[in-house]
Write a structure and sequence with these properties.
Layout: H1 8-15, H2 17-29, H3 32-36, H4 43-50, H5 54-66, E1 70-73, E2 76-79, H6 81-86, H7 96-109, H8 112-118, H9 130-151, E3 162-166, H10 172-180, E4 185-190, H11 195-204, E5 211-215, E6 227-233, H12 241-253, E7 255-268, H13 276-288, E8 295-296, H14 297-306, E9 310-314, E10 323-329
Parallel strand pairs: 3-4, 3-6, 4-5, 6-7, 7-8
Antiparallel strand pairs: 1-2, 7-10, 9-10
């Protein structure tokens, strides 16, 4: 719980915080930071390069400078050190795809009151737009790339042979588990539309000989094979309790005796009122999905227990936005 006192100023700051978010989104959508790169440009030059109105681009450049994302000197604008690292395409730390994913969620969030009244999602259509889908996939990839290298060091997979990355997207975690464990091979299970991105990513990391891709929908299709580790990262929050139990049952069914099951997600406390990000993320699932939500540690433990998983515990890992890991053995 945030212990700070609520004041009129703080309330209005939160209420208008989307102004800053939309300013950042516009900078990314226009690819302004990438245009600047390591150069300096004036407003006329930026407007010409981006085919924008000079008045409009001047206001955006000044607002981004006020936010500390650009530096303005004598009418010239340049990226800050942080912007060069985080907001210029091609940087290994680029987060622009996730920023654009947030941008794509704004319309649904603006109708949160309606979702609360009805208990139904307010997103008009599923993600079919290719650009929006790419933002989501690349955003998840960039986010995982920032977490996976340290995360895999905290999980002992010594003696394990075959990992199932269920709902693994581009296979970022499978890749890093394999890089950290030379004797491990992995299978990434996800929708057929994800295959090209996954296989390209796996190839770029030089582990195509150890990681394969299995196409399927874990809500409708069987999961085949035999594994001694199953990794479910950010899978449960997209579904309701019944679907979560089914997914966990499918994972358990393909694990060999003694196999390790790992759940990575945004985990609420058992009173459901914190930490803040998992609590807010539940609302994101409310406006965008039929039955998704954040789950508490106790709820996840109960699901695992009902699936026959034993030795259940919460690992010490704490990721960005309060992600945590629950583990157990079948």
């Amino acid at each position: 719980m945030d212990g700070r006192e609520w004041t009129a100023g703080r309330l209005l700051g939160v209420s208008g915080s989307y102004w800053q978010a939309c300013t950042l989104h516009a900078g990314i959508e226009l690819d302004l930071f990438t245009l600047l790169g390591t150069d300096e440009m004036n407003a006329d030059e930026v407007a010409g390069a981006l085919e924008c109105d000079v008045r409009g681009i001047s206001m955006l450049l000044n607002a981004l400078s006020a936010m500390g994302l650009l530096v303005k000197k004598k009418g010239q604008y340049a990226n800050t050190t942080a912007s060069k690292s985080l907001l210029v395409k091609g940087s290994q730390r680029y987060v622009g795809y996730m920023v654009m994913h947030h941008h794509n969620l704004i319309e649904a969030w603006s109708h949160l009151d309606r979702a609360v009244r009805t208990g139904k999602p307010v997103r008009e259509t599923p993600v079919h737009d290719e650009e929006e889908r790419q933002s989501f996939l690349m955003g998840m990839f960039n986010l995982a790339m920032g977490i996976a290298p340290d995360l895999v060091k905290q999980i002992d997979l010594k003696g394990k042979n075959h990992l199932l990355d269920l709902g693994g997207g581009p296979g970022t975690y499978a890749i890093h588990f394999c890089l950290a464990n030379p004797d491990l091979k992995a299978t990434v299970y996800d929708l057929p539309t994800t295959r090209p991105f996954a296989e390209k990513t796996i190839s770029e990391f030089g582990v195509s000989d150890r990681i394969d891709f299995m196409a399927g929908d874990y809500l409708k299709d069987d999961v085949s094979g035999n594994y001694d580790v199953a990794w479910l990262s950010n899978v449960l929050h997209g579904e309701g309790p019944n679907a979560c139990r089914m997914i966990i049952d499918k994972a358990v069914s393909v694990l060999e005796p003694g196999g390790l099951l790992l759940i990575h997600d945004f985990v609420l406390n058992d009173t459901f009122d914190g930490p803040m990000f998992p609590a807010l993320f539940s609302l994101n699932m409310l406006v965008n999905t039929e039955d998704g939500r954040s789950y508490s540690e106790g709820q996840i433990k109960e699901m695992l227990t009902n699936a026959g998983v034993k030795n259940i515990r919460r690992l010490s890992f704490k990721g960005p936005n309060e992600s945590g890991i629950m583990s157990g053995v079948v």
